[in-house]
Amino acid sequence: MAGWRIGSVFMPSLLAVLIALRATTGQVHMAGQILGLLWVIMAFALWMRYRQANRAGKLGLATEGWQQLDILSSTGRATAWTAVLCLGASQLTGWASLSVLGVLGLGIVCIACTWTAIAAGGDVPWRKATITRTILPDVAIEGEPLREQLRLEGVKIAGAMRMFATGRAMRHGVQSRYSIGADNSDAAIELESELGPAQRGEHHATPLTLWLGDVLGLTRTAPIERGEATFIVTPRLAKVDNVRELLGDGRDAMESRFTNRMPTEGTFKIREYAPGDDTRRIHWVRSLAADKLIVRTPDEIPPADPSVRIVLDNHFANTDHLTCAAPEELLDVMVRVWLGVGKALADTGTRVTLVTAVAKGGAVMRAERPMQPRGNAEAAKFGARVAWQPTVRLDKLLDRTQTRQIVVSCRPRQDGNKTEADSVTWVVVPHNDWTTREPWPTRTSPLLLPFAAGSAENRHGRRRAEQARLVRTWQDRLLFSQLCAVDWKAFSGAYVARRNDTGSVMLQVIP
């Protein structure tokens, strides 16, 4: 494609000159000579920029010569080749008006390329430029509106040129676009745009792509990348109902509770005496009848273990290659449920430990953080670091002791997992209930434009590329749904996180 784009800079004018010089009309023949002169001037200007870029590359600067030759935009290429067709049709049909259009179109393209190469080529516009990009607030809460501020100083914009900038702060966020004219050359200006709701995570925004283009949209300079930014979006804690049910019958209460007796059961339970039992609980009548000591057991449930580990299963491979937003949306919900369960249990006096796998020092390893009843800033920042990872499996996160553990997962349950003890309680987050559907690819009529007239998105190539992107997104969504398919029989007796009408999360027992 690069060769085609560079060839479109030189070939249309050469073909037009050959057609015009072979014309029998004197005016067209003279126009061919003028086009030839314009072509020579344009080629010389581009060749000088090519040499300058190669010299800068030898000095260690990140510049390539071919980027200086790739100067025509898609509009410029379409204009150049259309002008050649007009000249060719003029010679075949004898219609002089077509030759006027062809000569005028190619002349404008050559002049635009020459002016862009001379006034805006190379590193002259960016030599003294200072570009600063800031995402506000730098520490946000999930769902809050984000703003992007771009401060430019010393950008040199020649006459009849404009500066363009575009970038995306979040992977599935909106794309920000900026444009300023030549009247802001060498000035200190500040641009701002809305980025929409904040998405959870530690974000390293890729640099903005900046370039210069003429006011007609025929040419563009080699793009540069400036303005990296980092910001943190902490998860929003979800209110989770029925959390105490996760701890079993004891429910982590500080007091014992009476059990529910069946109609066929007695008023109390008995067993044989064991050394260390309270002698006041000996049932003498039963002991005489059985000829051995019998003691009564209390008709109550003792206090549960006041310590619990809440494990987030974030093991998932190859999510970076999926173009759909479902993996990120599902993980955000899992983190909210994970922190919400921990917060609800910590408020009741339970010692809660959050466990998951995070990246640290270039490697993914298990990490644990305590959950405090108040002041959960550290837990929120810990949740912001969580991402899908293909290294640490769930069995590496579970503790082999008898400590009660709660696993928040969206993956199918492995029945043969030997590390899973009886003290593990599962909370399943189904992807169908918490992720949004991507827009379905629709066929557009060739007679109706999906965007405003004159918009670049109306081009046939871009519309086909957008349709292909939507199809790929749906294919990735189906693949992700298959990987997250849950066998509910394997999770019988566990809990599922459902969306409540009040906006909170409700835990329901899976039958």
Describe the structure.
The protein is of the alpha/beta class and 511 residues long. The chain folds into four domains: 2-119; 130-234, Immunoglobulin-like; 240-245 and 305-444 and 456-509, no CATH class; 266-299, no CATH class. 33% of the residues lie in helices and 24% in strands. It has helices at residues 2-21, 26-58, 65-69, 74-93, 96-119, 284-290, 326-347, 377-384, 394-397, 431-434, 460-483; strands at residues 130-136, 139-141, 145-153, 161-168, 175-181, 189-197, 201-205, 208-214, 224-226, 229-234, 240-241, 257-258, 269-272, 294-297, 300-301, 307-312, 351-360, 363-371, 404-409, 424-428, 495-499, 505-509. An eight-stranded mixed β-sheet has the order 11-22-21-20-19-16-17-18. The chain has a four-stranded antiparallel β-sheet with strand order 5-4-8-9, with no helix packed on it. The protein has a three-stranded antiparallel β-sheet with strand order 1-3-6, with no helix packed on it. Helix 1 runs antiparallel to helix 2, helix 1 packs across helix 5 (96-119) and helix 4 packs antiparallel against helix 5 (96-119).
